[in-house]
Amino acid sequence: MQLILYSKPGCHLCEGLQEKLEQIQNLSFELEIRDITTREDWFAAYEYEVPVIYLSNRRGAEEEEKLLPRPSPRASVQQLEQMLRKYLAN
Length: 90
Prior knowledge:
- The chain is an alpha+beta fold.
- It is about 35% helix and about 30% strand.
- It has a four-stranded mixed beta sheet, covered by helices on one side.
- Strand 1, helix 1 and strand 2 form a beta-alpha-beta unit.
């Protein structure tokens, strides 16, 4: 499983979420950080929305990305893990 975090430099919400995602130990996933300032299309889509998380599923040559709800900045690592488990079960 892969999670994609759209982020930008200097975004404290992005940094906080990234730190929490990196602390999750009971779920196996790969975390890809995408800096929206590196591509115009990402910047246009997420300039005012970051942090944004997608769950990416690769099936053969196809890749499906599912937008996940933004967790509260106050969510603990445990709460974030519980939220992710909910979406992994689907």
